[in-house]
Design a protein that fits this description.
mainly beta; SH3 type barrels
C-alpha cells in the first residue's frame, strides 16, 4: 500500500507504523500504535533516547508492520 491507502480498519493496537506529516519529525523510525480516539491513531515512540506520543490520521501512514 502507498501513503494515504490505509484505513483505521487496517491498523491494530501493537502494530508499528512508519508515517510522514508536515511539521512532525518522525525520525524515519517505526512508532507503536497504542490506541485510537475518534478518527485518530494514538502512537508512541521510545527509541534511541527519544520518547513521544501523538495522534495521526490514517492518511499519514506510509507502511504498517503487523504484530
Amino acid at each position: 500500500m502507498e501513503k494515504g491507502d490505509y484505513n483505521l480498519t487496517d491498523i491494530n493496537i501493537g502494530d508499528e507504523i512508519l508515517f510522514s506529516r508536515a511539521g512532525i519529525d518522525d525520525f524515519r523510525m517505526y512508532w507503536k500504535v497504542i490506541g485510537f480516539h475518534e478518527e485518530m491513531i494514538n502512537i508512541e515512540i521510545d527509541e534511541m533516547g527519544y520518547e513521544d506520543k501523538l495522534y495521526i490520521d490514517a492518511k499519514d501512514i506510509e507502511k504498517v508492520l503487523k504484530k
